[in-house]
Automatic annotation (TrEMBL):
Keywords: ATP-binding, Nucleotide-binding
Top-level taxon in the UniProt lineage: Bacteria
Presence of keyword ATP-binding: yes
Organism: Campylobacter jejuni
An annotated Gene Ontology molecular function: ATP binding
Protein's recorded name: ATP-binding protein
Keyword Nucleotide-binding listed: yes
Length: 114
């Protein structure tokens, strides 16, 4: 369950799972776009209009993110997504695979970029 006020989720839940809280925080930032977002088991959130997918990976390092990118590449191409953004706590990188841009950015740059 996602909340527009991510602090509400944290207050209502007994278990404090940081990765879920971080994912909800990312969604709160995406609300600024005022467009419809979808999710599936490959992407935390994606937009069919802007063809961008967002994956919150607060603690993964660059090598693990690149492995995950290769695994989700076929699904990105199937959905017509050509830009995948991994949001982390501090890592940053850019790389391309078969015409899909994978961008790894820190949350502070992600949130300030809007």
């Amino acid at each position: 369950i996602y909340f527009k006020d991510f602090g509400l989720r944290n207050n209502l839940c007994i278990s404090k799972d940081f990765s879920h809280l971080f994912e909800n925080l990312v969604l709160s930032e995406l609300f600024k776009f005022k467009e419809e977002f979808f999710y599936n088991k490959y992407f935390n959130f994606y937009s069919q209009i802007s063809k961008i997918a967002y994956i919150s990976s607060p603690t993964l390092d660059i090598d693990l993110i690149k492995l995950r990118a290769k695994k989700i590449l076929p699904k990105a191409l199937e959905l017509g997504i050509f830009h995948v953004i991994f949001i982390t706590l501090s890592s940053e990188d850019n790389f391309f695979e078969q015409g899909v841009k994978f961008e790894v950015i820190s949350f502070d740059k992600f949130s300030l970029g809007f």
